[in-house]
Amino acid sequence: MKFVILDVYPSKKHRLIKDTAGGYGTGNDFGNSFFSKLLNLYVDNNIGMPAIEIMIISSILKEKHEVHYTRDATDKEIKNCDYIILPSSIIAHETEVETLSKLENNKIFVTGIFATTMRDKYLTKNSIVVKNEADTFFFNLNKSDKINKNFLDKIFLDPDLMNDFYSPVSLDDFPFPDWGSYSKIYPLRNNFFNLKEKIAIPILGTRGCPYSCFFYCTYPLQQGRKVRARSVDNIIDEIKFWKKKLGTSKFVFRDPVFSINRKHTIDFCNKVIEQKLDISFMVETHLNNLDDEMIGLLSKAGLELVYVGVESSSHVVLKDMQRFTVEHDKQYKVIKKCEDAGIKVKTMFIIGNPEDTEDTIIQSIEYSKYLPSLYSQFSVFTPYPGTPVYNDYKDLITEKKLENFNQYNLTFKHNNLTEKRISELKSKAYFKFYFNFKKVFQILNYFFQSKYGF
Ligand code: SF4
Fold first, then answer.
1. Is residue 87 within 8 Å of residue 70, measured between CB atoms?
2. Is residue 126 part of a domain?
3. How many Cβ atoms sit within 10 Å of the Cβ of residue 327?
4. Burial of 79 (0-12, 13-18, 19+ CB in 10 A)
5. Does 57 sit in the ligand 1 pocket, CB within 6 Å?
6. Number of domains in the chain
7. Are residues 197 and 137 in the same domain?
8. CATH code at 275?
9. What's the pLDDT tens digit per position in 140-164?
10. 384 lines ligand 1 (CB under 6 A)
11. Within this chain, do residues 244 and 323 fall inside the same structural domain, yes or no?
12. Cys bridge to 56: 135, 182, 263, 368, which one at CB 3.0-4.6 A?
C-alpha cells in the first residue's frame, strides 16, 4: 500500500513548528516592530523540524509499505496513494481543515493530539481521527496481520475497530524517526548552537510531565503525567545511527523536562562520555533539576544549550499559574554556573499571564536582562482548548482563528492589558533583551566560537 503524509502549514512570515507546545505547535511571531520582523525572519530561517511522531509513523509504515512525505496539498503522489495521513496542530488548524475538505477522493487518517481534542472539526465523510499518540496506533496495526486494504477500508466504515490498536507500547520498540528521507528534501536545523553542523536531529528520551503547571500546559495532554523513558542504550544506539547515517553529531532533545529522572540522565551522560560519542546537544529542563554535579556531567557529555522556564519575575503571577519555581538568587546562580561551564542558557518568560500588569511585565523584562543567560524568549499566556484552564477562559476568548493560538498572541480578554499593549510589550521585551551592545557582542562571540572554534 502507499501512504502519503500530508503536512500542511499556512503561509506565514514567522517560524511554525507542530512538535512544540505538546504537539499543538507554536509560531514565533515576535511582533510588528522592525526589530521583531527581523527576528521573525532570522528564526524562521534557522529553526525547522516536523513533529517527531509523524516521522516515527513514517518509519513504522515503511517496514511494509511505501510512504511519501509532502507539505504540498497539490503533490501528484496524492492521486496515486491508498491513504493520506494528515498531522494536526492548532497553529495550522484552519489550513488543515480546508485541505481536508478538498480531499474528496482520498481516505484520510488525521493524527496528533489537537485532532484528539477537537475531533469533530477534523471529521469529514472520508476522514477518521487517530486518538492520542498516533505512533502507538500505527505500531500496533503494523505488527498485526490486519494491515491490508480490506481491513483499513473497514475501519473507515466502523472507526470502533481502531480500539484494538491503542495498547501502550514501550518507547524502545519504536523504530527511529524517518529523518534520513526527510532531511533529503527539507531542512532539519537549529542554528542557535553548534554552527559547525548543518543537520540537527530531534530526539526523544522521555515522554510525560508530572509538574503542577499541567493545568495550562499541553504536554501532559499529549503525553500524560507519568514519565516514560526510553532505555539509555536505545537512545545511545539512535545517536550512533544518525552520526553514521547523516554524519551529524548535533541533537535536539524534545523531552518536556530533560533530566527529570536523575538516574537516567546520569547514566546517559556517563555512557556518552565513556563511549566518546563527541556530540553536542540541547535540552529543555527545570532549573530545580540542575545542580553542580548535573551541570558538570551534562557539560562533559556535550550539552551546549539549555532552555529553562522562568515564566515571570513576580511571585504573585507564578503562584496564580501554579508554577513551582526556585528563588531568584538560586535562578541566577544556576544559570551562571551553566554559562561558566560552557552551557548556553535560554530563559523562557511568559507575558500576559492572568495576574500580569504592565508593571509585572516590565519587571520580568528587567529580570531577564539581569539573569546571565545568552538568550531569552517571551511568549504570551495562552488558554489552550483541551487544557484544564480553558474552562475558565472559554467565555473570554477574543481570538476567532485557532491558527493564531501560536503562543505569541493574546487570545482572550485580559483584566489589565489589551491585545495591542501585549504586542507592544512583547516587541519591547525582545528589543530590550537583544538590542544592546553587550548582548550582540556575546552572541557574535558565541557564534564565531561555535562555527570556527575561536
Ligand atoms: S514543566 Fe509545566 S510547562 Fe513544562 S512540560 Fe511540564 S507541565 Fe508543561
1. no
2. yes
3. 9
4. exposed
5. no
6. 2
7. no
8. 3.20.20.70
9. 999 998 989 999 999 999 999 999 9
10. no
11. yes
12. 135
229 and 156 fall within a common domain? no
pLDDT at 377: 96
Q: What is the pLDDT of residues 417-445, one digit of tens each?
A: 999 999 999 999 999 999 989 999 999 99
The helices-and-strands tally (H runs, E runs) of the chain is 18, 17
* pTM beyond cutoff 0.85: yes
How many residues belong to the chain?
454
Distance 33 CA to ligand 1 centre (A): 30
CA of 80 to the centre of ligand 1 (A): 42
Residue 60 pLDDT greater than 90, yes or no: yes
Q: Are residues 232 and 303 in the same domain?
A: yes
C-alpha–C-alpha distance, residues 235 and 206, integer Å: 10
Q: Which three cell numbers stand for residue 95?
A: 489550513
Cα gap 209→231, rounded to integer Å: 17
Q: pLDDT of 372-430, one tens digit each?
A: 999 999 999 999 999 999 999 999 999 999 999 999 999 999 999 999 999 999 999 99
**219 in ligand 1 pocket by Cβ < 6 Å?**
yes
122 and 238 inside one domain: no
Q: What is the pLDDT of residue 454?
A: 67
Mutational pocket test of ligand 1: of 204, 206, 211, the residue with most ligand atoms within 8 Å of the beta carbon = 211
CB of 209 within 6 A of ligand 1: the answer is yes
Looking at residue 121, which CATH number applies to its domain? 3.40.50
Q: Residue 247 is part of which domain span?
A: 187-452
